[in-house]
């Protein structure tokens, strides 16, 4: 049978669509194969993702040991979501070893900024090298307890001179550590909506602490990982969504969005549909102008893109 030109184009177009769907389905550590309904504005930034490479040894005592998750794997998610730029955060797995993050920055060809984990003993020359590589923040992770804030004030002062931010994964300890964070003179970023507990939510001390931080004009909040505290669960995470909506309403100019890919705290069968998670922003921030602030304008300024 001879195909007409129109039939040939229709057939090849259908095959291309099938191939594209197959490519979308092959995004590691993410469910689903559809693109998001939300179209991110050009220049959008995923402000929270991690890379893992088993060739780099985990820090002694590390409890979170995910499978390898490469920049090439993540690029597939970016293609699906329509977001090219990213902030690579050194995870707790590696302690103060930032080699995996730095390798990602190098190979991102300018599409990424980094958040490092450093010790009190880091030299000014080493900080300068990190800055040159694209690092724009340091992270403290309180999943190991409030002692993880050792050196907070001195390190915050030093990196503040470089224009960096201090990012804190507070876990349930935000009310306890908020006074120290409020006393810092520089920029502060709070991971994962401050882990506001459910069902207390807007009535919790953690939410009140977030509002106080936002009111300093020096704090930014990552609208990320809604699954961490939700009691309702996927796909809408309505309980955490009420927290996100309230935060956006209070200070849209201080909100950031992050995928938390490859979702290291979740088992393989619990990984979310990242397109659906991005689409939650349409519920939390219905206006396109606000979405553009969160996805592009706020992080572009904060991370010096």
Structure characterization notes:
- α4 links the parallel β3 and β4.
- The N terminus is likely disordered.
- Helices cover 39% and strands 13% of the residues.
- The protein has ten helices and eight strands.
- It has one domain: TIM Barrel (Alpha-Beta Barrel).
- The protein is globular.
Class based on secondary structure composition and strand pairing: alpha/beta
At the fourth level of CATH, the homologous superfamily is Metal-dependent hydrolases
Secondary-structure element string:
HEHEHEHEHEHEHEHEHH
N-to-C span? 55 Å
**Level of helix content?**
25-40%
Shape: globular
What low-confidence regions span 5 or more consecutive residues with pLDDT below 50?
A: 1-25
Adjacency order of strands in the biggest sheet: 1-2-3-4-5-6-7-8
The total count of helices amounts to 10
Largest sheet: 8 strands, parallel
Strand content: 5-15%
- Overall number of domains: 1
Rg for CA atoms: 20 Å
| Strand tally | 8
CATH architecture tag: Alpha-Beta Barrel
Question: Could you say what the CATH topology is called?
Answer: TIM Barrel
Average pLDDT rating: 92
Protein name: 2-pyrone-4,6-dicarboxylate hydrolase
GO molecular function: hydrolase activity
Keywords: Hydrolase, Signal
Domain Amidohydrolase-related: 45-305
